[in-house]
From TrEMBL:
Low complexity bias: start-end ranges: 509-521
Pfam families: Sulfatase (PF00884)
Keywords from the named record: Hydrolase, Metal-binding
Single annotated GO MF: hydrolase activity
Keyword Ribosomal protein: no
Span list, region Disordered: 495-521
Top-tier EC class: hydrolase
Name the record gives this protein: Phosphoric/sulfuric ester hydrolase PehA
Sulfatase N-terminal domain: residues covered: 5-376
Cross-referenced InterPro entries: HdlasePehA, Sulfatase_N
Length: 521
């Protein structure tokens, strides 16, 4: 009898795609990620379908576009009627274990208003079993620190302050107060090894989440000085932030509203005020946090090898979203630029061709159906993604998507108020993007559109939406965006119909890509 398969889904937080050595980041040292890339397929054109964390993880784990799951921002509830990867794995006999977090706010109709989960950014998604919780409020991690005998400061988050730098704000190469042996990355890794050792030789699925390289961008020693800021890539931005602000009202708002405090613990002023030296230092710390994760993954990989499970385990490495890192004078994950949405996806096992860099257009909604396909589960009809198994084998279906698609909702939440600042309503504070290798179209519900000629302007400084020379192209891509949204409208029950003979279920698979509007010449 064939041994049942294992799946390790590694989900890091805020790791952008161009910080993968296999995709050109030769300044970064990640030998264990490099190994996955050598033994599997690395996807060059992979995006998250939305940002920030909560909505992105909802798309990753439900396989649904933002337009369908509607957990549109951190703190906005996820409708309990939606299935997810955890629930689907239970149907085929797997116990879906989760280490880390999903930043999911529960459906208020399934509980009461005093539920403490409504006082946090989010909790665990129903269907998964936590074997190493971080949420709510990182209590799992801080409790583990206390159990290790570490004396927590009055303000627990001060463990990430740079040693001896309390009074000096901004980017720094000083180490965090917490040593690497007690870092959150070590916490998650210890939980993973504890879980795997407890499973023995029984088949398993594990979502292994890491908090890093999420800010604060302060790394523990020795990772804090592992990278020289001079070796970091320079930021991609106009000479002055005011030049970029002229591109669009939403960008103008964020350039004035994003503060440094969330990124550097004590940072002062707007993120747009960072000089290039500070950005290079921020990127050096970001890389240090990445190498710390890579070292931790080496421990997990070594255990899988020692126990003979390496070849039986499909490993998927991805992130929830990217990070602006000072590009376009921005910090965080927001808006419409590629730096926030392009993320890593590497798959080892499941027939993946070793060492291949694949240019197929892939999205985070594809991860759920891929895992279900690997483990013998059924992909829900409502799912907006498709299994990548054929792509891994080098047989991309002829009807595969021709456009990348992602969305962003910028309604007011308690820590950000773009809706109010721009004079919009809650339900018109949204945008969607379609793009391919040539062009990128950004449609706003109540603000002017954007259109970029990516061959001429790959970094998206020049808005051509009102340029008469691009009018036909703008119309073409706007129509394609509308067709895509129409073809992905919620369809859980739309394949059923009543007939004189009773209920009929149609089995025709939905098209991956709507017919293209007439190309503009």
């Amino acid at each position: 009898m064939a041994r049942r398969k294992n799946v390790l889904l590694i989900v890091v937080d805020q790791w952008r795609a161009d910080f993968v050595p296999a995709l050109g980041a030769d300044f970064l040292r990640t030998p264990n990620l490099d190994r996955l890339c050598r033994e599997g397929v690395t996807f060059r054109n992979h995006v998250t379908n939305t940002v920030p964390c909560g909505p992105a993880r909802a798309s990753l784990l439900t396989g649904l576009y933002l337009m369908n799951h509607r957990a549109v921002q951190n703190t906005v509830p996820l409708d309990a009627r939606h299935t997810n990867l955890g629930k689907q794995l239970r149907l085929i006999g797997y116990d879906p274990a989760l280490i880390g977090y999903t930043t999911t706010t529960p459906d208020p109709r399934s509980t009461g208003p005093k539920d403490p989960r409504f006082t946090t950014l989010g909790d665990l998604m129903d269907g998964f079993r936590s074997v190493g919780a971080f949420e709510p409020n990182m209590d799992g991690y801080f409790g583990w620190l206390a159990h290790q005998g570490y004396e927590l400061p009055a303000k627990r988050e001060d463990i990430w302050l740079p040693e001896g730098e309390d009074a000096v704000p901004g980017a720094t190469n000083r180490p965090s107060r917490i040593p690497k042996e007690l870092s959150d990355t070590t916490f998650f890794t210890e939980k993973a090894l504890t879980y795997l050792k407890g499973k023995g030789d029984k088949p398993w699925f594990l979502h292994l989440g890491y908090y890093r390289p999420h800010p604060p961008f302060i790394a523990p020693a020795p990772y804090n000085t592992m990278y020289d800021p001079a070796d970091m890539p320079a930021p991609i931005r106009a000479a002055r932030w005011e030049e970029e602000a002229a591109q669009h009202p939403l960008l103008r708002h964020y350039l004035g509203a994003i503060g440094q405090a969330s990124f550097f613990r004590g940072g002062q002023g707007a993120g747009a005020g960072l000089d290039e030296a500070s950005i290079r230092q921020m990127r050096a710390s970001y890389c240090g946090l990445m190498t710390e994760i890579d070292d931790a993954l080496g421990r997990v990989f070594a255990y899988l090898e020692q126990t003979g499970q390496w070849d039986d385990t499909t490993i998927i490495f991805t992130s929830d979203h990217g990070e602006q890192l000072g590009d376009h004078w921005l910090l965080g994950k927001l808006g419409y630029f590629d730096e926030s949405f392009r993320i890593p996806l590497v798959i080892k096992g499941a027939g993946a061709r070793p060492g291949v860099i694949d240019d197929t257009l892939t999205e985070s909604v594809d991860v759920m159906p891929t895992i279900l396909d690997i483990l013998g589960g059924e992909v829900p009809r409502a799912c907006d993604g498709r299994s990548l198994l054929p792509v891994l084998a080098g047989e991309t279906p002829a009807d595969w998507r021709k456009l990348l698609h992602y969305e962003y909702d910028y309604r007011d939440i308690h820590y950000s108020q773009p809706e109010t600042a721009l004079g919009l309503t809650m339900d018109t504070s949204s945008l969607c993007v379609v793009q391919d290798a040539d062009y990128k179209y950004v449609h706003f519900a109540a603000l002017p559109p954007l259109f970029f000629d990516l061959k001429r302007d790959p970094n998206q400084f020049e808005n051509r939406a009102e340029d008469p020379d691009y009018a036909a192209r703008v119309k073409d891509y706007a129509q394609r965006a509308l067709s895509l949204r129409l073809s992905h409208a919620e369809r859980t029950l739309t394949h059923f119909r009543a007939t004189p003979q009773g209920l009929e279920e149609r089995r025709t698979a939905p098209a991956a890509q709507p017919p293209r509007a007439a190309a503009a010449e």
